[in-house]
Amino acid sequence: MDIITILKKYPLCHRCFGRLYAKLLHTSNYERGKSLKIAKAIELESKLLNLMGKYNELTESGNPDEIEKTDTEKLKIASEITEIKGQLKYIYKSGLTEIKLVDIPEEINEEEGENKLDLCPWCKNIFDKENLEIISEKVIDLLKDYEYETFLAGTMLPKEIKELEKEFETPYMESIKQEFNRIMGKILVEKTGKTVDKNSPDIVIMINPYNKKIKLQINSIFIKGRYRKLVRGIPQTRWPCRYCRGKGCEKCNYTGKQYPTSVEEIIAEPFMKVFKGKDEAFHGAGREDIDVRMLGNGRPFVLQIKEPKIRKADLEKLKEEVNKSGKVEILNLDYGVRKDVVFFKNEPHKKTYLAVVECEEDVYDDEILKLVEKLENLTINQRTPIRVSHRRADLVRVRKVYKACANRIDSKTFELTLYCDGGLYIKELISGDEGRTSPSVSEILNKKCICKTLDVLDVHDMENYEEN
Ligand SMILES: [Zn+2]
Ligand SMILES: [Zn+2]
Fold it and tell me: Over 90: is that where the pLDDT of 344 sits?
């Protein structure tokens, strides 16, 4: 759209007009907008001056013989003058009042008198000092409850402004969002002394500068570490009551939970208290069954604390607090990032297990010896176990056992230590799961066996994993 066409339709202020050409010249939007208008006005004013001169000349040197010819010419010039005056009207209406090379048509002077400048339809004066002050003070007030080091200011535009922008969009314009973000960011840096972080700010401040509504998005903090589960009978994560699905009912004593506690709750409780979070999420690198202990170097986890008011605390102290529980221990604590969660979910780590195997009949030393020999470097075909088939797709997984060793306990029972791929179901590796896992300990011994107890001794994740 040409300058006049735009201004005729929308009396944009200098700043907004300059924003249409933001990427063409490095200066402020205001400066650019005003300059463009001035340049155009000068061009039109000089044309006007020229035409006025010609008109006057014709009037003065009126040759009676050519009166008809002169009148036609005068008429033509007059209409050109009207046209240019009309164009100039729109430029002046958009806030340019300083230059007056020739008299401005009276009607415009009048309009200027009563209403200097129409409210700019794009910015609606959101960049006014007062408006910026009100908004920034409101933000500061909302932020006072939170500890943070970095922030990012974002702008939400009303629908009608978004639509307006689309209408006069140019490839080199800047959205009003970008300009407001920049200006508000600068004001907030000055007022708070904090820094802007575009990638992972502690807090994102979303501002609608038109109605002055502000929303804070407090980003989560992530604490990574490893946990040991020292007792059987507690699930890894909060487990909603299967009757009421967490609402609370008679069966669950109105706790909404199937189990009174979990690894998640034991760890999260002291953290939530200190970091004053609104909610939390527990991400483990895999999970063990409720009746399985997690020992050794522990299982990696990330505790996500949502909308925390505090972002830094003494992790060592929190560790001690959790370890006092006697049920769960945590170690290697550190602050993490969101990416750590994804990493966990995608890495099936090799593991070392200790299983107590119980046979229906007596089992002899040479049988156990043969079993161990057979298990080493053995490939297992495992169809989804019956006990998890309601929530996992039914398919055959191929997993490997790398190392095995055994220790007799009594005539029917022995301990079996296994170093194997992550994702291998150990209980089924022992029982055979009615033929769904093959080969299995039951199959190799040709005796019915069950896994009496199971512990995870090690999770071999990237850090301490060594092929040996
Ligand atoms: Zn404007
Ligand atoms: Zn319930």
Answer: no
